[in-house]
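Thread: quick sanity check before group meeting

JM: Hey all, I'm pulling together slides for Thursday and realized we never actually wrote out the predicted structure for the chain we discussed last week. Dropping the sequence here so it's in one place. If anyone has concerns about the input, flag it before I start.
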Amino acid sequence: MMLAFLLRRLAVGLFTIWGVLTAVFLVVRLAPGDQATVALGPDAAPEQIAELRHTLGLDQPLLVQYLSFLGDAVRGDFGESYRYGRPAMDAVLERFPATVTLTLAATLVAVTVGIVLGVLAGHRPGSLVDRATSTVTLGLQALPPFWVGIMLILVLALWLRLLPSAGGGDLEHLVLPAVTLAIPFTALVGRITRSGVAETMSEPFVRTARSKGLTEREVLTGHVLKNSLVPVVTVVGLQVGTLLGGAVVIETVFAWPGLGNLLVGAVGNRDYAVVQAATVLIAVCVVVLNLAADLAYARLDPRIRLEARR
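JM (edit): ok, ran it. Output follows.
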C-alpha cells in the first residue's frame, strides 16, 4: 500500500534527522576550543569565562546537555547566537532564501542542459555526438566545484569583465555561482538521461510508434523521453538536497549572502547555536526532498509500491 510505503520513508527520515542532531551536537562540543573563551577573548578573567560557560550550559554533564538540546530542537529552539544577539534560527532563516535561490537556479540549469545533452547522446548510441557528449560529461563531473568557481572568476570576471566576481542581490551576481554549482549536476543528469534514452530506443513500443508514421521528434518527446525520466526524477530529488550542502562552499567562493558565509563564520567563532540550527535545517530539507523524490518515483513506477506492499 502507498500508506505503508510513506510510513516507512517517514520513519527513515526521522531516524536520519535524529542522527544529524546527535552528530552535530557531538562534533561542535568535542571539537578543540571553547565557545566561552572565543566569545570573551584570551584576556578574559577565568571568573568571566566560568560565568559564561554556566550561562550557556557548557558546565553541565554532556548527557544533560544532549537531552536539553534534543528537547529544545524539537521545538525549533537552538538557543541564542552570541555573535548576533538573537535566536540562532532567526539568523539562519534570514540567509536561507538566498541559498534556496542559488540552489533552484543551479537545478534549473542542470536539469535543462543535462536532459538536452542526454537526449542528443542517447538518441543515436555509439555516434560521434554520443561519444563526445559522454566524454565531456564525465570530465565535468570530475572537476572540483571550488576550482571551477575560481577559474570562472578569473576568466569571466577579471579578464573579460563580463560578470561580477562576488556579492549578491541581482541576476548578474547569481550567474557564476549558479553555473559553478550546476556543472557536476548537469553532467550527472546528462549521463543518466543518455542511458535511459539509449535503453528505451530499443524497446518494441518505439518501433511501433515509428510504424504508425510518427516523426522522430514525436517519438522522442511523446514516448522515449517520458519513459526515460523515471530515474532522472529520483536523481534530481536526491541531488537538490546535496546542492544545498554543496552551496556552502560555492557561497564562500563567491561571497554569496546565503548560509555558506554564515555557517563558516559560526564554525570559526564556535557559535554553536548557529552551527546547529543551520546544519539541522539543511538536513531537514534534504530529508523532505528525498521523501518527495521517493513519492514521485513510486507514482511514476508502480513496482515501487508493490515492493512496499511486500
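AS: nice. The beta strands are 80-81, 86-87. The first strand starts at residue 80 and ends at 81.
JM: adding both to the slides.
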